[in-house]
Amino acid sequence: MHFKINIYRQLVFLSILTLLVACAGTGSESASRKSDVKNQYIQIDVELFGEGTEIRNAGNLLMDNPEGLVQISKAGEANDSVLVVVVHGYESQGYEWITGLKNLVDHYGSVFFFRFDWTRCPDEIALDLVSEILAAQKTGGFGKIILFGHSYGGMVVTLAASQLGKQNAEIHVIAAPLSGFPKLLDNCENMKYDDNDKLNYPGWNPSVQVIQYKTVHAQDGAFRELARDPQDIDLPFYLVEELPPTMDGHRLGHNWSVTWVLDKHIGKPHRF
User: Fold this and answer.
1) What confidence tens digit (pLDDT) does each residue in 48-84 have?
2) pTM for the whole structure
3) Which end of the chain is more exposed for a tag (fewer CB within 10 A), N or C?
4) How far is CA 43 from CA 48, 156, 207, 248, in A?
5) Which CATH number fits domain 43-265: 3.40.50.150, 3.40.50.1820, 3.40.50.1980, 3.20.20.70?
6) What's the rounded Cα separation, in Å, for the pair 27 and 112?
7) How far is CA 166 from CA 106, 138, 162, in A?
C-alpha cells in the first residue's frame, strides 16, 4: 500500500515539474522573441537627444543612420504590444521629430525611426517600409501597428496603407503633399494622376485607418508659394484634421506640425 502511494506521489511530482518546465519555456521563448526584435536593429538611447538647444544635434544623430529601421530606446517598462514607426520627409534634418519621439517612448516600448533615401520615389520607399514592418511584426508579434509620416514621408505611409493587408494599423499623415508636388515626382513613372491632376493611391483594407493632418496652406513654409494646396485630395480618410495656425503662441508651420500630432496622440496636447 505504501509502495503504491509513493509511486502515486512521484507521478504527481513529475507531472507538476513537467508543467513548470513547460511554462518556464513559454515565458523564455516570449522574452527571447521580444529581445530578438530589439537586438536586430540599430538602437539610439533617447537620453542622447539632450535638451533645449541640442535639438539640432539630436536631429543629426537620427539622420546619420543607414537606411532602414532604427530603434529609439529608453530604460523602463512601456507598452510593448504596439509597433510604432515614424517616417521623415524630404531633405529632413531630423530635429522636427525629437520632442515628439521623447514623449512617444514614454508610452510605447517599440518605437522606430525609418531612415530612407529621398531621391527615390515614394512607392519604392513604401515597399521597403512595409517589408521592414512585416519582418518586425513576424518577430515581435505586435498586436497593432502605428505609423507617422511627415511631408514626403506622409506620401510613403499613405502608399504603404494598401500593402498592409488586414493588419490592425493606424496611419497618421502629417503635412503631406498627397496630391503631388511640382518636379518632385517627375521621374516617378509609376505615380499616376487623375483627371484633376492629383495623385492616385491604391485603396486599403478597412482594418487600416488613415488619418490626415493638414497645416494652414498660407503659412506652411513648404507649400505657401504654391497656388494650390498639395494637401488637398479626395481619399477615404478615417479623419481629416485641420491643424491650428499657432502652437503655444508661435506659428505652427511645416515642421512643428510633427510635435503637435505626436504629442496629441499620447494625450499631451499643446495650446494654440
Assistant:
1) 998 876 899 999 999 999 999 999 999 888 889 999 9
2) 0.86
3) N
4) 11, 23, 30, 32
5) 3.40.50.1820
6) 25
7) 28, 14, 9
